[in-house]
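Second opinion, please. Pick holes in both lines of this record:
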Amino acid sequence: MYNVKSKIASEFINDAEIMATLEYAAANKSNRELIDEILAKAELGKGVSHREAAVLLDCDLPDENERMFTLARKLKQKLYGNRIVMFAPLYLSNYCINGCVYCPYHSKNHHIPRKKLTQEEIIREVTALQDMGHKRLALETGEDPVNNPIEYILESIKTIYSIKHKNGAIRRVNVNIAATTVENYRKLKDAGIGTYILFQETYNKEAYEKLHPYGPKSNYAYHTEAMDRAMEGGIDDVGCGVLFGLNLYRYDFVGLLMHAEHLEAVYNCGPHTISVPRIRPADDIDPENFSNAIDDATFEKLVAVLRIAVPYTGMIISTRESKSVRARVLELGISQISGGSRTSVGGYAEKEEEDSSQFEVNDTRTLDEVVNWLLELGYIPSFCTACYRAGRTGDRFMELVKAGEIANCCLPNALMTLKEYLEDYASEDTKRKGEAVIRRELGNIPNPVVKEKAGEYLKELHDGKRDFRF
C-alpha cells in the first residue's frame, strides 16, 4: 500500500497510487473548477500534491495552461529571482559493470575507449575548468567497484579541492555516482561534497528492470532507496531526476513528485535539486529506439508544472538541450545550467573523443558564450557556493527558500561571484554586459545593510581581492 513515510521503495513509490493518479488526471483534465482550485492553492507558493500536479500536466484547456506558465514564471522569480547557477560535469571514469541499455558505458560496449583519470590528469582537467571560470563541479563516474571504488572518489574529491590555479578554485563538488551504502555516504559527507545526485531513470519497476538487465543497478529497490541511505549518512542535500524518454513521462513525473514528497515527509527536507534530462544520441545509443521521447512543448509544460509543484527546489538542465529550448525553460523554472560541458573522460584538458562521450552535447557553446547569452536575456549568471560553505544546507536552506528570505544571501553572492568571473575570465563584451547587470541588480538587494556591504565587496573584488560571501 502507498505510504509516503515508508522507507520501502514499493510503498513510497507505489505503482497502484501512480496508476490511480494518472486515471484521476485523465478524468479531470478539462475540469475547470478543479483546475482553478489547484492553481489558487499553487499561488500560495507552497506547492501542490502529486495528484494535483498530474491534473495540471494533463490539462487541455488553453487558457488554464497559459495561467500555469504565468504562475511558474512568477514562482521562479519570487524564489530564485534572475539568478542562474553555473556548473560543469567532470567525468572521472567510464568503466562500468552495469548493463543500462540507454548508456554507452554499459559493460558489453567493447569498442568505446575506456579511461580512468589519474590524480595528475584530474589536476589538468580541474585547472582547465578553473581557467574557464567554473567554481562548481558535478563528478560523474561509471559503477565499477574495482576501477572506481569509493576510495578513488574520495581521493579525487580531495585533489579537486586542493587545486588553486591563479584566482581559480572549485568551491563545491557535487557527486553523481551509483547508489551505495550508508557508510560510504558518510565518507562522502566527511569529504565535503555538496549535493549527492542520483537519477532514478524511471520509477516504473517493470520498465526499470528491462532497462537495467544486469549489474548492481538492476536492483530497483536498492537504487530507489538510495536517497534515504544518503540522508541517514548525513548528506542533507540530495538531487533527484529521471531520464525522460525511457518510460511514459506522466508516470515518471508522478513518481518524481512522490519521491520529493517522501523525502519531505520523512526528513523535513525535499530534494535540493531536480534534474530533467531527455535521452540523447551517444556511441551505440539511438533515441529512435525509445518510443517514449517527449517533444519540446510537452517538455516545457513539464518544467512549468514541476516548478509549481515543488517551488523550493533548484531545477537543473544540461547541455543535452539546445540553446532555444534552454532559453524557454529558464523562465519557466530552471535555476541551474551547465556551460562549456564535456561529457567524456579527459574532455577538458585534451581533445574530446566523440565516441567516448556519455551523450551528445546539443549546446556546444563555451562558458563565456553562455554567460554572455544569459546576461543578454537579463539573468545573473551565478558561480555562488556560499550556502554550502556557510552550512546553509538541508532543512536550513529550505527554510530560507520557502520563507523567501534567501534573496538577502543569494542575490549579493551571485553578483560578487559574477564580478569575480568578469574580472578574471570574461571577454570584453561579456564584461561590459555583466557590469551593467551588476549595477542594475545591486539596487534590488532587499536589506539595506547587505546592499551597502555588497557594494563595498564589489569594489574590493575590482581591486584584486577574492571570495567574499554572505
The longest strand covers residues 83-93.
